[in-house]
Amino acid sequence: MPYAAIRYRVKVGSEDALAEIFEGFQRVDTPDMRDDKGQDVGRLLGTAVFVKDEFMVRIIHYEGDFIAIARHMARQQGVHNLEEKLAPYLTDRKAASSPEEFQENFRNALMRCVSELSVETHPAGH
Asked: Where are any strands of DSSP class E within the chain?
């Protein structure tokens, strides 16, 4: 099951404020993602956020079509509320005020995955 990482550059010293923002995060309405035709396209399995100095990274554990998951997230009001609260702490991009801006920010901040290891891929696990 793949992971994605989203990078944010934030103001140094904002770690506690960012932690508070994520404590009140409104999760997406469902972990199951569907396209415009109602077909299952993916599932959010979990997320985690890490912050240190001027970097914040959001890890997304998912299955299915990651682009469809990003589109679904872009339509969630809780995600837009979060983006608005993060805006004062971001140093390299503006908060997204529309689904299109969210998707653009998402694409631009997506980190390249160079390795994914799991128990399923471990040679001793089979």
From this structure: 3-9, 32-34, 40-52, 55-64
